[in-house]
Design goal:
The complex is a heterodimer of chains A (242) and B (305).
Chain A: E1 8-17, E2 20-30, E3 35-39, H1 46-53, E4 61-66, E5 69-70, H2 76-82, E6 84-86, H3 99-109, H4 119-125, H5 141-153, E7 159-163, H6 171-186, E8 190-194, H7 198-204, E9 207-212, E10 215-220, H8 222-225, H9 229-236
Parallel strand pairs in A: 3-8, 3-9, 6-7, 7-8
Antiparallel strand pairs in A: 1-2, 1-4, 4-5, 9-10
Helix pairs in contact in A: 3-5
Chain B: H1 2-20, H2 28-51, H3 59-76, H4 80-97, H5 106-124, H6 130-133, E1 139-140, H7 147-170, H8 172-182, H9 184-189, H10 194-220, E2 222-223, H11 225-228, H12 231-244, H13 250-269, H14 274-288, H15 295-298
Antiparallel strand pairs in B: 1-2
Helix pairs in contact in B: 1-7, 2-7, 2-10, 2-12, 2-13, 3-4, 3-5, 3-10, 4-10, 7-8, 7-10, 8-10, 12-13
The chains are: A alpha/beta (242), B mainly alpha (305).
Chain lengths: 242, 305
């Protein structure tokens, strides 16, 4: 694999909060159109990893390279225009604005280039079209999460960071969300997916990286991960004897 | 599109009404004060209503505009239009200097801005600067005194201010400001430059106060630092805007017409009850209508211009 083929290259990424090392030298690569799952116990650095890549936090060491250029330290709104976008663990739509206005803003200001986005089509594909002219505060939490995704997709990102999108969805919504993400990936959008629900990870991702205490301890398919002794020890505890 | 026309219709109505008012009602100074507060309340609306930052020292820009006007007339020999431009520029420069205050939020921003306005006042009123600002002894600009012209200038500033608010309410830029106010992180991820948006709103808001300050200096022509930097200007602008309801065109206008109307009416007819009535009115509004008078309609889903 030539280095140019990588969409995202994360190398020895570090992030400290006081004395706590949330990220302690995480490294991984992502190919265009690939879906990588980030899994690991609570506090292992999954969300911090997304927060540093998306520019919400500045990193304390290491580098993030997107399409061959270093992007660590770049402002969030510039990352959006470069083609990196994300969803948030707790959805953060613009509550007093209508659903349609929510996506109009990101299509207008954050568009990453390429063909213009068909916003009505986007809302329809996410089953938000019926609510287009309602205020975002009138949506239920699953719909707000979907709107958060719509806001990200309206910029036509080439890399989408998905932070616990599935949490709080019912099984039917979960299936539909998995199919949506898979469809986006099959059209060439790369994703980094943080999720606790392994069924969802299994349906959506091509490959997983397992994090523990701010480092990656495994890279491969989810099926291989479940056989890996280190992964089992981290998830189930050493004293269970595997 | 009819939304824009509703907004524009209201703006035109108010401007025309204030433009013809002196030919119906003879107290031009009182009318000038109305026009001045209509603009100031809307200027405050630009920064508070659209970004959520409450500038408690808003009078700093007003005073900078007034003194910018006065210094340009006294030292540079400028005529009123040029002096007005100098006043506006002084307010914008002050706003640029104060942009680091955006690192603060909520009450901290409000207090720091109050202190900044006070600092400018102390500099202007410093007796050691008597040769430049006339210090605490005040300025006299009787050479340019022309009440009809300064009234016309104030109405023109009001027209500009209302058009600006109409634009903010109906443009993509205004929408991006509301997004920043709702959630700056989501706004940034939507590609909106949060710093740029806030700064532009801040400078526009200061520009309005600076222009109004300039027209005030021209209208009264004799004033002291404590007049031009009176905290009453900030308080009135904040109270009027909040009373009517921010982020709308109607709210601050209603606030000025009702509260400043009541202020003058009670102050003349029953001055002994003035503070009681005024205070009760404001307390009642804060308790029962914290989002202003227009929220009576907006919370029922009715769009107010």
């Amino acid at each position: 694999m030539s280095p140019d083929a990588k969409l995202l290259h994360v190398e020895k990424l570090e992030k400290r909060f006081g004395g706590f090392r949330a990220l302690d030298g995480v490294s991984f690569d992502l190919l265009p159109g690939e879906v990588l799952g980030l899994v690991g116990p609570n506090g292992s650095g999954k969300t911090t990893c997304i927060n540093v890549i998306s520019g919400l936090y500045g990193g304390d060491g290491g580098q993030v390279v997107f399409e061959g250029a270093r992007i660590d330290g770049t402002a969030m709104h510039k990352l959006a225009r470069l083609g990196i976008n994300r969803t948030f663990q707790s959805p953060k739509p613009f509550l007093s604005l209508t659903v349609r206005e929510n996506v109009e803003i990101s299509a207008r200001y954050g568009h990453a280039g390429g063909a213009a986005i068909d916003l009505d089509g986007l809302l329809a594909s996410l089953e938000l079209d019926a609510h287009a002219h309602r205020a975002a505060e009138d949506l239920n939490s699953a719909q707000q999460k979907t709107l958060d995704l719509a806001r990200a997709l309206a910029t036509a990102p080439r890399l989408l960071l998905v932070d616990e999108l599935a949490a709080g969805l019912n099984p039917a919504e979960l299936d539909r969300m998995a199919i949506r993400l898979r469809t986006l990936a099959d059209r060439g959008m790369a994703m980094l997916v943080v999720e606790h629900l392994m069924g969802f990870i299994d349906k959506v991702t091509d490959r997983v990286v397992v994090l523990n205490a701010g480092r990656e301890i495994f890279g491969g398919t989810l099926a291989q991960a479940t056989q890996d002794p280190d992964v089992i020890r981290v998830f189930l505890g050493g004293s269970h004897g595997g | 599109m009819h939304r824009v026309f509703n907004d524009l219709g209201l703006a035109v109505l108010v401007v025309v009404a204030m433009a013809v008012a002196p030919s119906i009602y003879s107290n031009q100074l009182l009318l000038f004060n109305f026009v001045m507060f209509l603009s100031l309340a809307q200027g405050l609306n630009v920064i508070y209503g659209f970004t959520g930052y409450l500038p408690f020292g808003y009078v700093g820009f007003f005073g900078a505009g007034a003194y910018g006007f006065a210094l340009a007339v006294m030292h540079l020999g400028f005529g009123p239009p040029g002096a007005m431009a100098v006043g506006a520029a002084a307010a914008v420069v002050l706003a640029l200097i104060l942009t680091p205050l955006f690192r603060l939020s909520g009450a901290y921003f409000a207090i720091a801005n109050l202190a900044a306005a006070q600092a400018v006042y102390e500099v202007v009123a410093n007796p050691a600067l008597e040769d430049v600002t006339k210090g605490p002894y005040g300025v006299s600009l009787s050479g340019v005194f022309a009440p009809n012209a300064s009234y016309a200038a104030a109405v023109a500033i009001l027209a500009f201010t209302l058009l600006l608010v109409v634009w903010l309410r109906n443009s993509q830029f205004g929408l991006s400001l509301r997004a920043i106010k709702e959630d700056p992180i989501s706004a940034a991820m939507a590609g909106v430059s949060v710093v740029r948006g806030r700064t532009i709103a801040w400078l526009l808001s200061a520009l309005i106060a600076g222009l109004v300050g300039g027209s005030f200096a021209w209208e009264v022509s004799v004033f002291y630092p404590e007049t031009a930097f009176s905290p009453q200007f900030s308080i009135f602008a904040v109270v009027f805007a909040l009373f009517g309801g921010t982020a709308t065109l109607t709210g601050p206008l209603l606030g000025v017409f009702i509260l400043y109307g009541v202020y003058n009416w009670i102050g003349i007819s029953v001055p002994q009850y003035f503070q009681l009535i005024y205070g009760t009115l404001i307390v009642a509004l804060v308790l029962f209508l914290p989002n202003g008078l227009v929220s009576l309609l907006t919370r029922r889903g009715i769009r107010v211009p």
